[in-house]
């Protein structure tokens, strides 16, 4: 019996009737030689971790642009938070942790520089609009590996595409990630807001704190415990009504007090000018795109390819590119003894 066969046997013995078992995957768009040790979902997880888009997440903003300090959340640390919470939910419900982890690690690969501000800006610029979940799928299907994509399983791509609140994942593991995403960003963004001096812990309405808890640890534990009590042994993944309502009210509180606060929005106008001018420059001069993106122009519109390039950028690379294009270089003068 191979190591993979042992994994299949463990899944058959211990996973829920409603779990997506690894041996039942719908497979990939392109057939590949199977791995003797790893299931297909484990292979997807590994491919995501080693891809370029995943590494760039470390320098992409979550909420605050280029924050000063080492402990603010980035898109990478957010992704790791989501992965941990999604795996915890999957474990309590006897679902497939490998599938949940792979979806979680890939769910934000297509996110823009400058957080959701960057997403809103590109959505206005690109004729077809922009949604980071759709771009994340484009990253794994088209952009990675020099235009060949990662050839992930259908279940992982479905979970990535449908992870937003409005989505409807086809697997319960995908639903775990969708909930984990919201639990993670509300809590770590709240911690960042407190660290930045925008909020104090007791600013959170008392009735919300009474239900969810007074710290991130308590609130995350409340969410996972509620999902377990409400969903174990059932063909859905949901919080209890009281906890879900309190979580939604906390989310609305964060939008009102943090996401659209002067501190978080203060640099957005500059970011919009910068991304807008950079976008227009490359649409007008597509020949200036990097070589890897030039090849895409044979298959896709220049607006789409420019969007691919801009959305791939880290915050600091977007600033570097803008400066390289639009900011004059300094002159070096020779001392002639005058």
Task: Describe the 3D structure.
- With 338 residues, the chain is mainly α.
- It has one domain (54-326): Hypothetical protein af1432.
- Helix content is 60%, strand content 0%.
- The protein has 17 helices and no strands.
- The longest helix is centred in the middle third of the chain and has 24 residues, at 172-195.
- The model has no long low-confidence stretch (mean pLDDT 92).
Secondary-structure topology with pairs:
Elements: H1 3-14, H2 40-49, H3 52-56, H4 75-92, H5 97-106, H6 115-125, H7 132-147, H8 154-161, H9 172-195, H10 206-212, H11 216-231, H12 241-259, H13 262-265, H14 268-284, H15 291-294, H16 302-312, H17 315-326
Helix pairs in contact: 2-5, 4-5, 4-9, 4-11, 5-8, 5-9, 6-14, 8-9, 9-11, 9-12, 10-12, 14-16, 14-17
TL;DR of this structure?
Helices cover 60% and strands 0% of the residues. By secondary structure, it is mainly alpha-helical.
State the helicity in percent bands. 55-70%
The total number of structural domains is 1
Largest sheet: none
Give the full name of the CATH homologous superfamily: Hypothetical protein af1432
The overall average pLDDT, rounded, is 92
Annotation, overall tally of beta strands: 0
- Category by helix and strand content: mainly alpha
Distinct helical segment count = 17
Q: Remind me, CATH topology? A: Hypothetical protein af1432
The residue ranges in which pLDDT falls below 50 over 5 or more consecutive positions are none
What is the CATH-assigned architecture?
Orthogonal Bundle
User: What is the chain-wise order of helices and strands?
Assistant: HHHHHHHHHHHHHHHHH
Distance between the termini: 84 Å
């Amino acid at each position: 019996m191979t190591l993979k066969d042992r994994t299949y046997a463990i899944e058959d013995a211990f996973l829920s009737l409603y779990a997506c078992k690894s041996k039942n995957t719908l497979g990939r768009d392109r057939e590949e030689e199977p791995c003797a040790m790893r299931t297909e979902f484990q292979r997807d997880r590994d491919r995501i971790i080693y891809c370029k888009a995943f590494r760039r997440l470390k320098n992409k903003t979550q909420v605050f642009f280029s924050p000063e300090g080492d402990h603010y959340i980035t898109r990478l640390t957010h992704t790791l938070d989501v992965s941990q919470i999604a795996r915890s939910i999957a474990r309590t419900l006897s679902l497939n942790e490998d599938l949940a982890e792979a979806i979680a690690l890939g769910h934000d690969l297509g996110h823009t520089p400058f957080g959701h501000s960057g997403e809103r800006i590109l959505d206005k610029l690109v004729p077809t609009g922009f949604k980071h979940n759709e771009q994340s799928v484009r990253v794994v299907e088209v952009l990675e590996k020099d235009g060949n994509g990662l050839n992930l399983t259908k279940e992982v791509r479905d979970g990535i595409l449908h992870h937003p609140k409005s989505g409807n994942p086809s697997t319960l593991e995908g639903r775990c990630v969708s909930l984990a995403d919201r639990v993670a960003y509300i809590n770590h963004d709240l911690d960042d807001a407190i660290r930045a001096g925008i909020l104090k812990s007791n600013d959170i309405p008392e009735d919300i704190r009474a239900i969810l808890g007074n710290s991130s640890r308590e609130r995350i534990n409340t969410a996972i415990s509620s999902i377990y009590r409400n969903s174990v042994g059932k063909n859905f993944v949901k919080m209890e009504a009281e906890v879900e309502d309190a979580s939604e009210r906390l989310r609305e509180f964060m939008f009102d007090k943090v996401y659209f606060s002067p501190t978080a929005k203060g640099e957005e106008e500059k970011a919009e000018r910068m991304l807008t001018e950079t976008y227009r420059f490359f649409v007008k001069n597509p020949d200036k795109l990097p070589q890897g993106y030039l090849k895409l122009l044979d298959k896709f519109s220049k607006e789409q390819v420019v969007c691919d390039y801009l959305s791939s950028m880290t915050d600091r690379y977007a600033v570097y590119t803008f400066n390289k294009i639009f900011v004059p270089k300094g002159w070096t003068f020779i001392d002639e003894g005058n």
